[in-house]
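Supplementary notes (optional reading)

For those who missed the lab, this is the record we used. Protein: Glycolate oxidase iron-sulfur subunit. Length: 406 residues.
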Amino acid sequence: MHVELHNDFVDNTTARRGADLISACVHCGFCLATCPTYLDTGDERDSPRGRIYLVKQLLEEGEASEITRHHLDRCLTCRSCETTCPSGMRYGALADLGRGLMEAEAPRSLPSRVFRTALRRVLSRPALFTPLLRVGQLLKPLLPGALGRKVPPRQTTGARPQKQHTRRVLVLEGCAQKAATPATNAAAARVLDRLSISLQAIPGAGCCGAVDYHLGAHQDGLAHMRRNIDAWWPELEKGAEAVISSATGCGSLLQEYGELLAHDKHYAAKAQRISELHRDLAAYLLEQDLETLQPTPTKARIALHIPCSQQHALQQPDTTRAILSRAGFELVVTRDDHLCCGSAGTYSILQADTSERLRQRKLTALCGDTPEIIATANVGCQMHLGEEATVPVQHWIELLDEAISP
């Protein structure tokens, strides 16, 4: 698909990048069948192909309308379309680029800007998010039904290993996960300890940058990336062998640090090295000798939810299933595994109605074979599904940790 850039965009590096990305699209329409929002609304403007045309229109006409922003906002960036695209169209990169241009070319109303800025600042900063969450957990019994369900219960994490092994990896503690589901990384630390590997959280590292970047605040997102690199780099120079993410949503951005900071002469090389050293937790464990764990798995029937970020962005749809199957867990049959649950970072807040419909569809697909537990690999999905699920929703590493605990 060819793009004739408007005169206002001829010298705009971002716009030229957008035109290059669009050129890969052959408007075949295969993406429609795997796009959750198109399947929900039936409106082609809520499909990848429709949104590509809307961004193309922006680049060629030099201006954007509320309609363009509305349909870009409704995109989950689940990237299911990329998995089915025969021409290798990098739709996720185009969607992020389009959102950034929209924020500049068609500013939102003041109330909308204030709300989105507050949302970004709170969610990406544990120092703000954690105390607010603790207040919500304290008041949870007093909150009305729908609001109360949005507040996850406070988790007990158990003790983290104290022994320091020769082999060590760094972990992204994240922002929401650090406060809402701290049991995830505590369980990961115990599992890795059994493999004689230390899991280290480094002060100064925090949000991966996804909250800001996916909401069009690219410079703020890049600032988070640089801050993480600065925090991790001294430890990598001392021999840490990998940067581990236990939230696949964060991991899908970590693997793109090199590309997103390629223009930054001070950080380009370091960012590329971070991307090369990044490992999703499941992928990293599959590289280890798991026979030494000798798990005794629960007899509960488990429905495995594979987050979009794991199967479409990281392109690792089978890693978690392989680990749990080898460990002896009973995995039930699920349907429509390729479709998003509706969490998608801040999507469940900003597009609540669509998000709730997608969640109900996903829960129906997960629970058709009567599971007793739902296991997932991403904090956002865990919290979103957990609001309405009739069975517990846990991170899969917690199940493995329980199976190997003495």
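If you only remember one thing from this example: The chain has a mean pLDDT of 94.
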